Amino acid sequence: MDGVFITGTDTSVGKTVVAALLALGWPQARYWKPIQCGTAPSTDRQDVARWTGLPPARLLPEAYCLPLPASPNVAAAAAGVEIQPERVRLPAGAGPWVVEGAGGVLVPINPRHTMLDLMAWLGLPVVLVARTQLGTINHTLLSLQALRQRGLSVAALVLNGEPVATTTATLRAWAEVERLIELPPLAELNRESLLTAFARHFQEWTHG
User: Fold this and answer.
1) CATH T-level topology, domain 3-206
2) Is residue 153 pLDDT above 90, yes or no?
3) CA nearest neighbour of 174 among 145, 146, 201
4) What average pLDDT does the segment 172-188 reach?
5) Which residues contact 103 (CB under 8 A, 6 or more apart)?
6) 61 secondary structure, DSSP code
7) Spatial contact of 151 and 165, defined as CB atoms under 8 Å apart
8) Which residues contact residue 139 at a Cβ distance below 8 angstroms, ignoring those fewer than 6 apart?
9) Which of 19, 33, 72, 90 is the most exposed place for a label (fewest CB within 10 A)?
10) CA distance 150 to 79
């Protein structure tokens, strides 16, 4: 694969954690979050750098770095700009790329486009990150439906959080994904914990 696009069923579901462990464990992978909304106390790129220790050359600067922690369309309007999908192209250089989205699948990025349009524009296989708490089945299946209706390939579904056996069983039966990965909570976010999680849950897939 040339890389993956990490999206989520919602905000704060663990996209950045999954992106960090993939960027760290996948040989020569480079991390890029093209649209960053919210810069205090840190950006996601800064968090990934702190957790992984990856060199700056493997952590690419954002196409849009917007101070307000809000949906991309709102954050951009507050900054007096409008996000142009044409500006969001994969940077030059070899991958694989670990591209992290902002918010969920259908969050608007401007008055005409959503994050789904950006995913289609970039054309990478998608990794969907979901919570394990109550409500995730509906959010996950709706997100998968939207991705597939747009013709996007779903590389994996990652359930991030304390395992819930009934939720996992239901999504195995209904999600129709090739890979369903359960990622338990990490006690700490650092290079060692991320490499351990990568080896346990992702290495066979990315090295296959």
Assistant:
1) Rossmann fold (3.40.50)
2) yes
3) 145
4) 96
5) 8, 10, 11, 37, 71, 72, 115
6) P
7) no
8) 9, 10, 130, 131
9) 90
10) 30
Q: In whole angstroms, what is the distance from residue 156 CA to residue 178 CA?
A: 7
pLDDT of 208 strictly over 60? no
Q: Are 125 and 4 in contact (CB under 8 A)?
A: yes
Q: Which of 15, 30, 33, 58 is catalytic?
A: 33
Residue 27's identity, in one-letter code, is: P
Q: Say how far apart CA 169 and CA 13 lie, in whole Å.
A: 20
Cα first-last separation, the chain: 10
pLDDT tens digit sequence for 63-115: 999 999 999 999 999 999 999 988 899 887 777 999 999 999 999 999 999 99
Residue type, 68: L
Q: Is there a catalytic annotation at residue 15?
A: no
Q: What is the pLDDT of residue 101?
A: 97
Residue 16 CA neighbour count, 13 Å, CB half? 22
pLDDT greater than 80 at residue 203: yes
**Alpha carbons 160 and 203: distance in angstroms, whole number:** 17
Amino acid at 65: C
In this predicted structure, the answer to whether residue 205 has a pLDDT above a threshold of 90 is: no
